[in-house]
Specification:
The protein is α/β, with parallel strands linked by helices and about 220 residues long. It has a single domain, classed as Aldolase class I (TIM Barrel). Helix content is about 35%, strand content about 20%. Helix 5 links the parallel strand 6 and strand 7. It binds D-xylitol-5-phosphate (DX5) and zinc ion.
Length: about 220
């Protein structure tokens, strides 16, 4: 089953707990938590305390997407706060293999993300250390941007890399995903779709998650 990971970046920050409960009831698999530091990306969001506080209210998989410089300084805090998946950017560290192994050693799943300018081939020598590849389909930093079509080819390349290596590794896609393009993103080989504004800029986020599920349930299981 293709998973849906609503990004609470586009939620009303004063109502996050209730919104997470709504998406959970409606069939979301992950809650995608975007961490931004104002340095790797221009925007600022939140740190580990928000993860810890939300953790008490949800049993969803917490999928933390770190858009920060020097991610090695913070991964342990996010795991201790309750992150199940910790994803950092390849572009943000010189020692990605070490950091992937460190995240796994802390008991979380290790994710690595690539910005639109970074080729999938940069992950070839890391593939055995990765639990999740996050293909960015917008430039990270803000919700509500348009999907970059080139990402579809990168998803296919990531799928081919995972299959040729014979590893268990999810492919997640983030940015500009809508009810209209979700099917083509899944068909290209994605396992997990992140959607922020397409879910939280609607009047009923739970109902929108159900609409996404109807679209994704039509995609054959991999
Ligand atoms: C953007 C974030 C995304 C963002 C996606 O840098 O990583 O997770 O919330 O938002 P939409 O789905 O609106 O493009
Ligand atoms: Zn994200």
């Amino acid at each position: 089953m293709i998973k849906l990971a609503p990004s609470i970046l586009s939620a009303d920050f004063a109502c996050i707990k209730d919104d997470i409960a709504s998406i959970e009831r409606a069939g979301a698999a992950y809650v995608h938590i975007d961490v931004m530091d104002g340095r790797f990306v221009p925007n600022i969001t939140w740190g580990p305390k928000v993860v810890r506080d939300l953790r008490k209210h949800s049993s969803l998989t917490f999928d933390c997407h770190l858009m920060i410089v020097e991610p090695e300084r913070y991964v342990e805090q996010f795991v201790k706060a309750g992150a199940d998946i910790v994803t950092f950017h390849l572009e943000a560290t010189s020692h990605a293999q070490r950091l992937l192994a460190h995240i796994r050693s802390l008991g979380a799943k290790a994710g690595i993300s690539i910005c639109p300018q970074t080729p999938v081939s940069m992950l070839e020598d890391l593939i055995e250390d990765i639990d999740l590849i996050l293909v960015m389909s917008v430039n990270p930093g803000f919700g509500g941007q348009r999907f970059i079509p080139r990402a579809l080819e990168k998803i296919r390349q990531a799928r081919a890399l995972v299959e040729s290596a014979g590893v268990t590794c999810e492919i997640e896609v983030d940015g500009g995903i809508t009810l209209q393009n979700a099917r083509s993103v899944a068909d290209a080989g994605a396992d997990v779709l992140v959607a922020g504004s397409a879910i939280f800029d609607t009047t009923d986020c739970g109902e929108t998650v159900r609409e996404f599920r109807r679209v994704l349930d039509g995609v054959a299981a991999r």
